[in-house]
Amino acid sequence: MSERVNDSPVQQTLVPAGEGETIWFDGNVYTVKISGEATNGRLSVLESSIPPGNGPPLHVHTESDEAFYVLSGQLEFQVDDEKFIGRAGDYVFVPHGTPHCFKNVGVHVAHTIFAYTPSGFEKFFLESGEPAVPNQPIPQWGPEEFERAVAIAPRFGWEGPKTK
Q1: Model pTM score
Q2: Looking at beta carbons, which pairs linking 146-154 to residues 24 or more positions away fall under 8 Å?
Q3: Which of 57, 114, 135, 146 has its CA 20 to 30 A from that of 95?
Q4: pLDDT under 70 in the chain at which residues?
Q5: Do residues 23 and 126 touch, judged by C-beta distance below 8 A?
């Protein structure tokens, strides 16, 4: 079953557990569960694994709203001037243009589902990260990798610090 939006088909799609394009990005693991190509630009959804101590710096998405659903673990969120701990079952919505960040403050890997609307930001992860390799440790980024990603980021509506 599909419907037409802007003359492009929007398909109902099943992405089975454990499938989707998976990349390493700044010490984390991200899997694209559905991309903007499948939703005609309406939505993208990713799954994440964030090890303890990891998370992005304070940043802003200028084009997309972002929503998080915490599956497990503890993430300290900062959304504008508000700080709080997100735990399993919590939902966090960040409107575009709002400064935000998160950090895993627990002892276990945190898992989330997060979405962008409209889609497009998932392409930043795919272009800036590297394909994940099973049975290998997640590489940690140094200043060079971070600066490379920051140089790419403005094309996808991301504003943040230039160095880590």
Answers
A1: 0.89
A2: 146/26, 149/25, 149/26, 149/124, 152/124, 152/127, 152/128, 153/124, 153/128
A3: 146
A4: 1-12
A5: yes
